[in-house]
């Protein structure tokens, strides 16, 4: 079980890393949209490449971040009934969902999407719109995104099995991580308390920051 938990932590770290940087795709899509609008207003010209680049970036952002979203339990859930059930029943429902619904769906999508990506890459298929972009990069978002989602589903499955066996923490709790700004504020607060305590000749309170 410890080897599986180690694998789970590695998958969590992978999706946490991806989720940390995928926000830049949203920024890039916004920048492309702004540049396209400025060029069109100022010079009266535009291109379908700008429009397609926006939805390429958007597609990559929400598909690749699907595993990160599952890691933080942010997908839409209908908890009207589930939240009233005992914790172990909730965990078993998740186990069934990850094993018999999420995994098969991801496998089917991967099975159907990889041949399309390879075919579009080999043929160099282009957009049917004048000035459009090549197609295979956006198709590649499907297998990449669903691979990360499936891996995260396996990670969540491992956590729940470990919990039922008494070898892991409650997997139903939401992960809460401090942002870099919050950590900076906490450090500054601690420094101020330490300085004030030193000036008063007292011992500063113990830090609760992790």
UniProtKB/TrEMBL annotation:
Membrane-spanning segments: 21-43, 55-71, 91-114, 134-151
One Pfam match: DctQ
GO cellular component, one term: plasma membrane
UniProt xrefs under InterPro entries: DctQ (IPR055348), TRAP_DctQ (IPR007387)
Predominant place of localization: membrane
Annotated compartments: Cell inner membrane
Residue ranges annotated for the Tripartite ATP-independent periplasmic transporters DctQ component domain, each copy included: 31-161
GO molecular function: transmembrane transporter activity
Keyword terms: Cell inner membrane, Cell membrane, Membrane, Transmembrane, Transmembrane helix, Transport
Topology versus the membrane: Multi-pass membrane protein
Record-stated family: Belongs to the TRAP transporter small permease family.
Function recorded in the entry: Part of the tripartite ATP-independent periplasmic (TRAP) transport system.
Subunit structure: The complex comprises the extracytoplasmic solute receptor protein and the two transmembrane proteins.
PANTHER family recorded: 2,3-DIKETO-L-GULONATE TRAP TRANSPORTER SMALL PERMEASE PROTEIN YIAM, SLL1102 PROTEIN
Protein's recorded name: TRAP transporter small permease protein
Organism whose genome encodes this protein: Acidovorax carolinensis
